C-alpha cells in the first residue's frame, strides 16, 4: 500500500491563514484558560472525540458554551494549579471543500502542576507530563470564517506522570 500526499488545490491563502489563526487561538484559549478566545474559535456545536486519550471523556457533542464550561472547568483544564501549553506543529490538510476543512496537526501538550509560592501559584512546576499526539480538527464555515466543529486527538506517547499532574492540590 502506498501513501499519496494530498495537495488541496482549492485552499486559498486567506483560508489557510484563517485556519492557522483559529487553531492557535484555540490552543491559547486552553493554555490561558481564556473562555473568550475559545468562544471565538468554535462553531455553535462541537464534537470532541477524546476516546483515543480517555475512555471516560469518550466522544461527545457540546454546544459552544457547554464545551467551554466543560473543558475550562476546575475539573479539567481550568484547575488553577494546572499549567499547560499546547504546541501545534506542521499541519497536514486531509480534506478541503467549500464548507469544511479537515486538518491534522502534530501536537505536544505540556502539563505541569504549579508550585505554591506563599499564597500565589508560581510558574514553576513540581511534576510534569507531556503528551505527543496528532490533533485532528474539522473546521466549518461560519459567517464567512472558519470555526472548529470537531476535534479528535490521538496519543502517540506520553512522558511523566499525567495522573499526578492533574491531581489537584488546592
UniProtKB/TrEMBL annotation:
Q: Which GO terms describe its molecular function?
A: lyase activity
Q: Which InterPro entries match?
A: NTF2-like_dom_sf, Scytalone_dh
Sorted UniProt keywords: Lyase
The record's listing under Pfam families reads:
Scytalone_dh
From the record, what ranges are coiled-coil? none
The segment(s) forming the Scytalone dehydratase-like domain are 10-167
Recorded family membership: Belongs to the scytalone dehydratase family.
Q: Mind telling me what this protein is named?
A: NTF2-like protein
Which species is this UniProt entry from? Answer: Aspergillus avenaceus
Native organism taxonomy: Eukaryota, Fungi, Dikarya, Ascomycota, Pezizomycotina
